[in-house]
Specification:
The chain is α/β, with parallel strands linked by helices and 198 residues long. The chain is built from six helices and ten strands.
Amino acid sequence: MAIDQVHDLQLVFRKLLHSMSHPGSISSFPEMADRVDFDLSCSDTTLLCAMALLDAEVTFHILSKDNQNLIGKIAEYTLAKYAPIQEADFVIVLQDDKESDILNAMDQCKIGNLINPQQSSTWIIENTRLSNDGVLKLTGPGIKSHAHLETGFPSVLWYSRNERTKEYPLGIDLIFTDNDGQLVCVPRTTTVEITEVK
């Protein structure tokens, strides 16, 4: 891998922090994503986010059972352990995962509890392209007025996400990645409304 696993991953982590603090704000690092030279079944942006966030103290889950090579590589690079969906700290959703599998996982994943709301799952979700010209209207902390977003995430999954985040501070945090070295975050504190096409 032709990336600097200290400097480059620190930059990715800072981009993640910025996007989590400013929901709907798209962060970009295409040059860095282009330097990833492993041929894995996830996008380079997704791999960089996983490497920046995962370590030996956390667990992760990948929905597809056909990705043993990817599971092994992420565990090797990050020292994180693979776990069932009900126990995973991080959930990685690949572009070819089925909507029904994602819905099922969203119903079962950790959302924390009132004593330990931080014991919830963070999702890293692949998309083809992210844009601020979408039908999603985001409001809440870190957003001046509102933000628009297009993630390619089907409406039914947003309704499920909204159901899982309705009892704050419980919920899940979402990180979307695309094939162009971009990411955007939608934390549990963000209200997501599906609007008419602009």
